Amino acid sequence: MSSTPAIVRARVWLEQGRADRAEPELRLALAENPDDSTSHALLALCLVRLDRAAEAVEEARSAIHGAPDAAMGHHALAVALEARGRIDDARKAIDAATAIDPRDADTWALRGQIELHDRCWQDAREAAERGLAIDPEHVGAANVRARALAQLGSVAETEDELRRTLARDPENATTHANRGWWLLQRGNVAEAGESFGEALRLEPGNESARSGLVESLKARNRLYRVMLGFFFWMSRLPRRTVWMVLAGAFLLPRVLRRIAEQAPALEPLVGPLTFAMVGFLYLTWIIDPLFDASLFLHPLGRHALTARERRRAAAVTALVAAAVTAAVVAWLGGRREALILALVFLTFIIPLSTAMSVEGRTRRLVSSWVAVGLAVCAVIAVGAGLVARQEGREAWMAPAAFCGLVYIAGVFVMSILSNRWAMSPRPD
CATH number, domain at 16? Predict the structure, then answer.
C-alpha cells in the first residue's frame, strides 16, 4: 500500500473530516504516480464527502483497474455507489471486497450501512455484528448496529449499544448524532437537541446532526411532534409496506362510502373522516417546509437551515399567505372564484416544495419543469373559467376543464413521486 508524504497528509485530513484539504494532496500524489490504486481509492472516498459521487465512482473504478485484487478499491466503489443510491451495485462491490478480505471490520460496517439505506434492518444488524465479531471496539459497526436495533424496535439493546459506543469514543460525532435521532424518536426532544449540538461541536459539517437539530427545534411544537412520530413509524416499515399504507389511505374514502351505503346510520361520519384523512395526508406534504418557516424567528434555527430549506420555507409561506388571503376574500365578498384560487395556492405547495427540496440534478430538473407546467395549467384553468363565467363564453369551459383536470392529475402524480423520492433520497 502506497504511503508517500502526500498520501499520509491526505489520510490525516480525511481522519479530521477535511476532505477539502485532502483532495489537493491526493491530486499531487496522482500527478507523481497516475496509476497508484491507493491514491485513486482515497480520492474516491474524499469526493464522496465533497458530494461529488459521480466523480468518486470513476476514481474507484480506476483504483480497481490498477489493483483488482485489493479490497480497498472495491470498498471505495461501494461507498461511491451507495452515495448515488445504486444499492444493488453497491452490494456487488462490497461483496467483492469481503471476498478479498473477509476479516476487515470496516467492510462489514459499510455493508450494514448499505442495508440500512435499503431499509433491510435485520441484514444491517447481522452485517454490523459480523464486523464487531472481528473488532469489538469498531465504532462504525457499533453505530450501524445501534441504528438497526432502533428500527427493529429493540429499545433496551439500542440504549445499551449507544452507551457502550460513546464510552469507547466520547468524541465521535456520528455516535452523538445517532443518539440524538434515537432520543428524538423516543420523544426526548430537549436531550436530542443537546446530542445534536454536541455532534455539531465535534464536527460542524455533520449533515445528520444538522438536520436532526432542525427536527428537534421543530418538534417543540406538539403538532409537529405528532407528525414526526408518524414519519418515524413509517421509516421503520419496509418499502412495500409503505406503499400499501399510502394506497390504503387513498382508497379509504371509497371504502367508507361503500360502508355507508350498507349502513346508512354511519353516513354522517363519512364526510368528517374523509376530510380528516385528506387533511392529514396534506399535512404530511407541507408540514416540513411550513415549520421550517417558523425557524426564521428562532435565533439558532435560522442558522441551522440550509439556503435551499430557507428558500423552500419562504415560498411555501408565501403560498399559504396567498391562500388565506383568497379565502378571506371569498368569505367576505362571497366570490367563489377566490375560493378556487385559494385551493390552487394550497395544492401548488406540493409540486413547488418537491421541486425545491428533491435531491439529484435529474429529479430536480424534471420536478421543476412539471411545477412550471402545472402553474401554467392552473393559470389557464382559472383564467378560462373566469372568462366563461363572467362573459358567458361557453367555448372557454372546455380548455378550463381540461387544464383543471391536468392540474389535479399532475399534483397527484407529484405527491406520489415526492413520497417515492423521500424513500430513496440519494438518486443516481
Answer: 1.25.40.10
Retrieve residue 38's grid coordinates: 491507493
Is residue 363, in this structure, part of any structural domain at all?
Answer: yes
SS3 154: coil
Select from 102, 137, 169 the last residue of a domain.
Answer: 102
Among 75, 102, 129, give the residue marking a domain's end: 102
Handedness of CA 195, 140, 117, 130 (dihedral sign): negative
pLDDT, one tens digit per residue, over 56-114 is 999 999 999 988 899 999 999 999 998 888 888 999 999 999 999 999 999 999 999 99
Q: What is the pTM of this model?
A: 0.77
- State the residue range of the domain holding 274: 247-423
**Count: domains in the chain:** 2
pLDDT range class, residue 425, cuts 50, 70, 90: very low
For 163-175, the pLDDT digits (tens) are 999 888 888 889 9
- Owner of C-alpha cell 393559470: 379
- pLDDT band of 316, cuts 50, 70, 90: confident
